[in-house]
Amino acid sequence: MSVPAAPPGQPKKAATAAWIGSALEYYDFFIYGSAAALIFPTVFFDESDPATATLLSLATFGVAYAARPIGALFLGHYGDRLGRKKIMVFTLILMGLSTFLIGCLPTRDQVGTLAPVLLVICRVLQGISAAGEQASANSMTLEHAPSDRRGFFTSFTLSGTQGGQLLATLVFIPIAALPEDQLLSWGWRVPFWMSIAVAVVGYVIRRTLDETPAFTQQTESEGVAKLPLAILMREHWADVLRVIAGALVASVSTIFTVWALAYGTSESVGLSRSSMLWVGALANLVALGAIPLWATLSDRIGRRPVFLIGAAGSAVMMFVYLWAISTGAYPLVLVLGIVTFGVVYSAANGIWPSFYGEMFSTRVRLSGMAIGTQIGFAIAGFAVTFAAQIAGPDGDDWFAVALFTTALCVPPVLAALTARETHRIPTELLGTRAPGEKNDRERVAA
């Protein structure tokens, strides 16, 4: 039975809702990343030992990624039972509230060690929210989209991610330029408070969305799965492993956004905060255009080749980008930063929502995407902490960090090489096998 077409305007409305929600989620996430690299070591940790303070601050950035798999189990389960819309609304409210509270936290000078504890609690709530946000938004847009344009419509989730990151960077540029005393007293709080405005807009749009035709049909014809996780592990275990491996490509984003920012503004390189923030801003601006173009290309030639370009290309370009930072030549850093993150990485980043989502059937799609991506993202989140250790006591061993990033790009390449091509499969047949086709267990046995 074919899935009925979505009502007129719903695919665009779903894509817009996904864009705004993802923009908020990742505005919140990346203002935290910028603050963790530039401000939190002084505000929340012992500034008498700057190296340790920076390491601990970057570790709190990774804490949210550790919370993501837990949130994925919970939100994935209910998303496949209750629908995509309810989870999209819940995650938006949770992220907006937890981010606002970070801006209200007392500092270490005010309450001592309680300050970093409260910071970690809010960061965990951010992680739980993010665990369900992308998977629910991706499922919503994929299941509303025409079968031949799923790549394009699902790419709006990641365009929103880059839009949120761009907004976070633009907000932080004037904040970082404040006098030191104003920056560390009240200035850093403003970006966190501003998230409430975006949350309200996103909430209004998401409340008016229809549930997807695919989920509605699944509910009416077969009913929802009582235990989506059990079905997922029985029928799609190999695809979950592929998504986990593929999601490691997000290490490129976290290393670029957080570690490279800290490295570029360190004493060994000496670039200014504002100049390095502009690299990220312009790279994200380019990504806003590159992501839908790569996604449209994947609708024509397939998901696998485009994803491979992004994963393998990022492994190479991170070497070049980190080398450029080590030279201190800002024009070189700017150009290579834009090419690395804005163009090459966007190939993988822009099409993974369709690539991963098309591996699963409707009844377990949200669970499969949430669990697979969030386990992979958890590893990617702590890549920043590992990079800070690998970089040595002075934090300037860029070659070791580049080699580490390249190693994390190998599993995504292998995941793409072993995956089925799905861009021409009708939506109602996604996650099923053609007659006579072996499943992964049979392939392994053979």
From TrEMBL:
Chief location category: membrane
Superkingdom per UniProt: Bacteria
InterPro entries for the chain: MFS, MFS_dom, MFS_trans_sf
Domain Major facilitator superfamily (MFS) profile, first and last residues per copy: 14-424
Pfam families documented for this protein: MFS_1
Keyword Methyltransferase: no
Location of the protein in the cell: Cell membrane
Protein name: MFS transporter
Recorded topology in the membrane: Multi-pass membrane protein
Gene source species: Streptomyces gottesmaniae
Family annotation (Gene3D superfamilies): MFS general substrate transporter like domains
Assigned keywords, A-Z: Cell membrane, Membrane, Transmembrane, Transmembrane helix, Transport
Membrane-spanning residues: 26-45, 51-75, 87-108, 114-131, 152-176, 188-205, 240-263, 275-294, 306-324, 330-348, 369-392, 398-417
